Amino acid sequence: MKKLLYLFVAVLAFGLTSCDKCVDCTGCVGGADGEICQEDYDNKDDYDDAVALAEGVGGCDCK
Questions:
Q1: CA-to-CA distance for 18 and 50, rounded, in angstroms?
Q2: Which residues contact 29 (CB under 8 A, 6 or more apart)?
């Protein structure tokens, strides 16, 4: 029983630490709705720029 509990705690801890920061973008011009994830960019600035571009030029509502 203890082994099962330790396994559960390990899986839960891994799941919490590997959460992705993603935003869903809807209402985009041309129907190009989708998801933008921080892990797809080299750094946070590039990610922030991509979200700003989607919202500004693409007309998306990203949340």
A1: 22
A2: 58, 59, 60
Distance between CA 28 and CA 12 in Å, rounded? 35
Q: What is the CA angle 18-31-62, rounded to 5?
A: 40
pTM of the full predicted structure? 0.67
pLDDT tens across 2-24, in order? 554 444 444 444 444 456 699 99
Cα separations in angstroms, 19 against 14, 30, 39, 55, 57: 9, 30, 10, 23, 28
